[in-house]
Write a structure and sequence with these properties.
single chain, TIM Barrel, 2 domains
């Protein structure tokens, strides 16, 4: 049984990665329904939280059906991170996660996200300050290092554990790599196999199929996997992986009916949570993924991404099988 502090996650948990503009409550609830064991919010700016910025505060929203769930924060200033940790605690998540992995320039330039990988002593001081400022279990998501010459993750993980971190998720790339090239899991395995490590170690990067999940589990021995981009428009991946790991067999691919029902639920939850205009606009990035691989879908997708009426969008989704039959005859 893998546990983060007192949170039981099962034998080989699958985590939904925190993804900006993706890992919101509507999407998380779908992933939870389809087998995700632990999820994280989109990353939240500590500066935004302490200034009560609407977008940052809204990201604190969590629902009972999502638990266990962690709220993830990022920032480069100790005072702001301490204050934001106190704000997060009032939202009553199951844990607090620190983002030391985001490679985006506007985050890195503030010595936040992966930017802190250039200053490991500061990373440790900041983590220690956050651990001391909250009663929540604190976890960390990070990368192997800043670049090829600074892959200090084995030592860094040990030091993070020493200041009180309860689990670590490691993306198998450096910041310089961004999301290019192949993720290197050998160092993630070294962290897990370090005899001094006793907290859970989760691997992240390039897990996009049940076969890949089995390979990562069997070759590298992590306590579980964190899945990000492969879950977009594909919340079924969690149960697909679990079934394959247990039986060696594949679950059937979701039918068109199941895909359109998931897309419709996602849309309606997004509109309910964000409001009609924003919910409709932000949902547009998901349709292509929900219906990936379906032939002759382009015309239908164009209708979905250009329509501003919730009633008409629901009708288009309801009619998808009819459209497909028409377009293939």
């Amino acid at each position: 049984m893998v546990k983060i502090d007192n949170i039981e996650l099962g034998e080989f948990p699958l985590l939904l990665a925190p993804m900006e503009d993706v890992s919101d409550p509507p999407f998380r609830i779908l992933c939870k329904k389809h087998g995700a064991d632990l999820m994280y919010t989109e990353f939240i700016s500590s500066e935004g939280l302490i200034r009560d910025a609407q977008k940052s505060v809204q990201k604190l929203d969590i629902y009972e059906e999502e638990r266990p769930i962690g709220i993830q924060i990022f920032g480069g200033e100790e005072s702001s991170m301490r204050l934001s940790a106190e704000i997060v605690e009032r939202s009553n998540p199951d844990l607090l996660d620190i983002n030391y992995g985001c490679p985006v320039k506007k985050v890195v330039s503030k010595e936040a996200g992966a930017g802190i990988l250039r200053d490991i002593p500061k990373m440790i001081r900041l983590t220690k300050a956050i651990v001391e400022s909250t009663s929540l279990p604190v976890t960390v998501k990070t990368r192997l290092g800043w670049d090829e010459s600074t892959k200090y993750i084995v030592d860094v993980a040990e030091r993070l554990q020493d200041v009180g971190v309860k689990a670590i998720s490691i993306h198998g790339r450096t910041r310089v790599q961004m999301y290019k090239g192949e993720a290197d899991w050998t160092l993630i395995s070294e962290v897990k196999n370090n005899p001094r490590m006793h907290i859970p170690v989760f691997g992240n990067g390039d897990v996009d199929s049940p076969e890949k999940a089995m390979e990562m589990r069997d070759r590298f021995g992590t306590d579980g996997l964190m899945i990000g981009r492969a879950a977009i428009g594909n919340p079924w991946i969690f149960n697909q992986i679990k079934h394959f790991l247990k039986t060696g067999e594949h679950l059937p691919q979701p039918t068109i009916q199941e895909r359109k029902q998931a897309a419709k639920e996602h849309l309606l939850r997004s509109v309910d949570w964000k409001g009609e205009r924003v919910g409709i606009m932000e949902m547009r990035r998901h349709y292509a993924n929900y219906f990936k691989g379906i032939p002759h879908f382009k015309e239908t997708r164009m209708k979905l991404v250009t329509n501003d009426s919730i009633d008409e969008l629901v009708d288009i989704l309801d009619q998808i099988k009819l459209y497909q039959e028409t377009e293939t005859t």
